[in-house]
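Protocol step 4 of 6: structure prediction from sequence.
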Amino acid sequence: MENEETNYHSNNPTNKKNTIINFLLIITIFVGLLIYMLKVDGIENIINVLNHVNYKWVFIGIIFLLINWFCEAINLYFPMKKMYNNQTIKNAIKVSMIGLLFNNLTPFSSGGQPMQAYQMTKTGKRASDAMSALTIKFVITQIALVVTTLIIALIEFNFLKQLLKDYMWIAILGVAVNIFAIIIVILAGVNKKIITTITHPIIRFLGRIHLLRKTDEKIEKLDKSIENFNTQFKLIKSEKKMVIKMFIIGSVQCLAYYSITYAVYKAFGNSGISFFQIIPTQALLLLIMTFIPTPGSGLGAEGGFYLLFKSIFRQGTINMSILFWRMYTFYLPIIVGLFFLRD
């Protein structure tokens, strides 16, 4: 185990070449969005729109963003504090921001957790413990996200049904995928034999068709990870108060993230749609974004925002709204995360 932890600590899990390529892709998407706005809206209309922005709501959007970030850090702090008494909120904030940075730099947010675990090993934590804490946080946060979204969606079902029309199947698929992911992770914590019975044949099959190499080694590593997570999952069963706190904080985090879109909506002088109608629409957009295989769901996020909100936002403001929304949810986490990446 010591060799495994040492190797993890000594090898930064990021691929510099891929990171550079992803940075260039992000810059290209940003420049492309600006060119598109200049061509479609024109410089005069853009200046006019900016002159009429309600910057009080821009500031409120920043507050929502900070709440989202803080909740993310607190929900990492709780399980790590149970494992390591010297865990600090300051370190949890740093690790969380680095996770947000690499989630936005990698397709399907795949780079966040490995980098977070790597950062925690630099402060003396075992990589296996770090990954267990991150998985516990993921499970509880995802449950909070699904429950919160479903409750609000049911309350505003008629509005969503009319707005989505042909897109309703995407919402159902997105919720189903999230629920399936939660069930798989919970099974790994409750009954490891079920997961290994499912995963071992899949890994061996992928090896036989030459999509995976060193399958025995991968199975061994997977079994060790499941074994460790199965042990750490006892935290969820034994620390009910912590789980309830994390669920509440996770719900607040989701609402804060969704509320950023409402702040953008109000910043551009829009009215007529309520806060509780914007939130489930944004929740659907988040579900759509999970299927986009680009860093930060680039292009898919912008396109999804346009399709879902173009009938809600005032004419001539939708493209600038997309830019502001992406600044909050994509570009700012990258910029701020870079500062936390420095030792």
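Step 5 (inspection) to follow. Residues 2-341 form one domain.
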